[in-house]
Amino acid sequence: MGKTLAYKILENHLVKGELIAGNEIQIKIDQTLTQDSTGTMVYLQLEAMDIDKVKTELSVAYIDHNTLQTGFENADDHAFIKSVAKRHGILFSKPGNGICHQLHLENYGKPGKTLLGSDSHTPTGGGLGMIAIGAGGLDVAVAMAQGIYSVVVPKVIKINLTGKLRPWVSAKDVILEILRILSVKGGVGKIVEYTGDGIESLSVTDRATITNMGAELGATTSIFPSDERTREYLASQGRENDYIPIAADKDAIYDEEINIDLSSLSPMAAKPHSPDNVDTVENIGKIKVNQVAIGSCTNSSYSDLMKVANILDGKSIHQDVSLVVSPGSSTILKQLAKNGALAKMISAGARIIENACGPCIGMGQSPESGAVSLRTFNRNFKGRSGTLDANVYLVSPETAAISAITGYLTNNLDSSDILDDIDNIIFEKNDNFVIYPEGTNKKNTPVVMGPNIKPFPRNNSLPDQLKITVGLYTGDNITTDDIMPSDSRLLPYRSNIPYLANYCFEKIDGDFANRCKEIDSVAIIGGENYGQGSSREHAALAPLQLGVKAVIAKSFARIHRSNLINSGILPLTFKDITDYEQIELLDKLIINNAVNQLNNDYIEIENITKGFSLLAKNDFSDLEKNMLIAGGKINYIKSL
After folding, report:
1. Mean pLDDT over all residues of the chain?
2. What is the DSSP letter of 504?
3. CB-based contact 254:193 (threshold 8 Å)
């Protein structure tokens, strides 16, 4: 029986366990990445483990999220991360260098390697043939400290791509079509693996766009083979020696298979307020556009922005449209400046903003009230842009650029204009944005910690009798943005959980934080796909700060479930989802013999208020049970 590409790499990195879908295994982690929004907490946790040097081949700390410095908080976080990076042998990418995923693709990603990142879009590296997984910060800290990561072996979906994309149709349209087919929860517990003759026409940055937004499927990761296009890309970055060919066996067996003819696709858009609310631009119609934003880790590559520059060349942005462009890296910006593409965009009326995540995470460029904003980003959750009543559509760079000119959502598929292929170039590298930790170590490098950086909350061990009161009742597809909002107002406090917790669930229930303060131990009731979205462990730490001890839901998103367990919060899944409808706000629940019940097939929960009992699935691995009993991953590690 042939092997999938994903399983080949996992097998090559297997430390413990058996490579069978559903089994828990430990794998060796070659590389890690962090970004500053989650990084401060990662490095606080790394310091708590009291190690000297990291155990990975390469670890990089990127500064790309909180680059808007209107107070001391963000700058203090950057100084802290920089000092810890120096102490432990971690590369430090300074603000202005660019977005972590684009930078890692350019400079450090290698086919056949494993990468763990404290950002949900780490699977971008799958475009290079890596097993690249997004995880909670504590998991990344442990990977740096111990060089390993525990994961339940996913199933593998084969997506067979045939044909070739037509002009004005791009890689973004491919992943939007896949989201339309599978939905935002269709990839949970799975790896998406791309095959077929259609991949030959997709560049590495095209592939990276597709694997990047695989995160919106809920997938563990996505991956393309490493082939001649991979070699070409690595050569353009001066890294041809990092190339190795790697692909699935021709007779590989997959759990599912989807076939997509690239030539049949049209320009697509994800409508408000979910990445899987997808239709063709033609079907959506000519809606008036107020803002266009081009960039993010999904679509800020050199080829993306060259296409944008060529579309804008000699044209003018519509008088009612604000267009902002954020290149993915300093290398890309430098090349755009040298070849005149930047001048084309500026001449058309585009606003060029810093090489950073920026508007994608609500860090500036919020649209006007009630606006329609077209964005080449990966998420369009309600309010994520910073404007609660804005309508955000996710589109390709080509659709974004032509729509910025016309002033309405435009399908240019039938245009006689032809988009030229972007020539391969050799990029000039600039190390002035990177600090290498040479000659430094734990003994001679102190930690720099500003007043906004507070210790992260720690849970207590699981009591034998857990008494909890329902403090929140939610619906389906609750996102980590819903749980812990991410915008320019709150991002500077990512290292201050006590302060941040006051805003937990503020967009869902403004009274939640205050209600929790009146309850000793809190339960949250959730619907399907609870915790979808980013990897931010703040969506677990802030509830922990408020006394949340359990979340009972219909189903969980992968990363958030892990983050809850890492914090010692029980993520319980209803055995019978009709029980969800029988629970109300402020119901009092009890789990008797909680520790012993972790050995049963189901966990019984008594609803004292309503006078009935319900069952939750016990789907925890032995390691997860031990962490929950200890009160979280840090407590468990320290007990060994």
Report:
1. 95
2. T
3. yes
Q: What is the DSSP letter of 413?
A: T
Sheet hosting strand 372-375, strand order edge to edge = 278-280, 268-270, 391-394, 372-375, 291-294, 322-325, 351-352
Task: Indicate the Cα dihedral angle 36, 477, 212, 385, nearest 10°.
Answer: -60
CA neighbor of 224 nearest in space, from 324, 352, 126, 103 = 126
Length of the chain: 640
Quote the pLDDT of residue 70: 87
204-212 and 100-107 helices cross at what angle (nearest 10)?
A: 140
Q: In what order do the strands lie in the sheet with 148-152?
A: 14-16, 24-28, 148-152
* Relative orientation angle of helices 228-236 and 204-212, to the nearest 10 degrees: 100
Q: Give 416's contacts (C-beta < 8 A, 6+ positions apart).
A: none
Token pair in block for residue 565: 């367990």
What would the pLDDT profile of 485-541 be if each residue is shown by its tens digit? 987 888 889 999 999 999 999 999 999 999 999 999 999 999 999 999 988 899 999
What SS3 class is residue 306?
helix
Please give the single-letter amino acid code of residue 202. Answer: L
pLDDT in tens, 63-118: 999 888 889 999 999 999 999 999 999 999 999 999 999 999 999 999 999 999 99
Residue 532 near residue 555, CB atoms below 8 Å: no
Q: How many CB atoms lie within 10 A of CB 13?
A: 19
Torsion angle, alpha carbons of 360, 365, 366, 367, to 10: -110
Least confident span in 162-171, 347-356, 464-473, 490-499: 490-499
All residues at 6 or more sequence positions from 443 whose CB lies less than 8 Å from its CB, including other chains: none
Question: pLDDT tier at 378 (50, 70, 90 boundaries)?
Answer: very high
- 3 state SS of 604: strand
Indicate whether 416 pLDDT > 80: no
Around Cβ 638, how many Cβ atoms within 10 Å?
A: 12
Token digits of residue 501: 């917790």
> Are the C-beta atoms of residues 338 and 466 closer than 8 Å to each other?
no
List pLDDT tens digits, range 571-615. 999 999 999 999 999 999 999 999 999 999 999 999 999 999 999
- 3-state class (DSSP) for residue 431: helix
Residue recorded with tokens 């720099």? 448
Distance between CA 231 and CA 252 in Å, rounded?
Answer: 24
Measured between alpha carbons, how far is 422 from 395 in angstroms, rounded to an integer?
Answer: 20
β-pairing verdict for 24-28 and 14-16: antiparallel
Q: Is the dihedral of CA 481, 484, 489, 492 positive or negative?
A: negative
pTM of the model: 0.95
